[in-house]
User: What shape does this take?
Amino acid sequence: MKILTLFIFFLLFASCSKTKQTSQTQEIDPASSIVMAEIVESPTEEDNLNMVLMRAEIPQGIVDNIMKSARRDSVFFVALESATAGDPFLHFLVDKKHPLPKEYEPDDLVLLKDAEAYHINRSDLRLRKEAADSLEEMAFAAQADGITLLVSSTYRSYNYQENIYNRNVKEMGREIADRESARPGHSQHQTGLVVDFGSIDDSFALTKSGEWILANAGRFGWSLSFPDGYENVTGYRWESWHYRYVGKPLVDFIDTYFNGIQQYALQFIYEWEKNVLSVG
Ligand SMILES: [Zn+2]
Assistant: This one.
């Protein structure tokens, strides 16, 4: 009983001193409020980072890890710089809300040929040079493991997307068409950095090729764009066959800081470039 009374007394005391502290902080003298205003005017790199992570709608767990790592040392910022140092289209955000510049067409597309390294299922497939070279390297590695990759779809021009989308709307209505295909200008395929492999349907995930690519694509700079369970983040249902070439540094950045979710990293970089780089 005596202990309980003491405890209640302690609680009362603690809450009183807390109130006192609060009232003290409210009495800010003019000099210190000027200092505070200056701090607000020039945000630190950490403030910027936190603001951008919020704007990019990154989940709290990922935000906490990134903030922790950024406070500990500058490795996060070094990784960010390295991830965005290459061709800007490697990290260009293209999704249902963010189109490519109207009628964008890469100027270094090369025609893929049915060759030793991999098979193609039509003769007009084109990729940007860097992606084509990397695809070949990856395909040779797959062959060394006894797997021959099949490339089914690559670059899609604005006009091509327009035709597909209009056809889908006609056949299945706008709502389903939006889920199954991108509006013109909104397809990652227009970057010339994307490959759809194999059957382009769910059965691909369980094939030897599907399993091999999932496990190895990252080593060659390729990233799964629409993973299982992230439709509300990417805007697309799971596409086990759709990989985007983003380069090795960006794959590492996505895996290390964004749990392997390409969309989160690209949204973050988009907001970082818009809010921090263009201002600073
Ligand atoms: Zn695709």
